[in-house]
């Protein structure tokens, strides 16, 4: 529970300092998740397929 409270306060503080709206914060979260998934899929496919140029 401490971690959740800390994370909420950290995100709220960062959001206020950057001056971004909740809507923008949701988009940043979505895009970050999409980027992480894309990178993860690239790494997995590179390890799965033994080729000279995986990317």
TrEMBL record:
Keyword Membrane annotated: yes
TM regions (residue ranges): 23-49
Keywords: Membrane, Transmembrane, Transmembrane helix
Protein name, as recorded: Protein family PM-16
Organism: Prochlorococcus marinus (strain NATL1A)
């Amino acid at each position: 529970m401490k971690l959740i409270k800390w994370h909420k306060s950290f995100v709220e503080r960062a959001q206020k300092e950057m001056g971004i709206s909740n809507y923008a914060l949701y988009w940043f979260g979505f895009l970050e998740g999409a980027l992480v998934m894309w990178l993860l899929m690239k790494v997995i496919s590179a390890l799965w397929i033994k080729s000279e140029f995986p990317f």
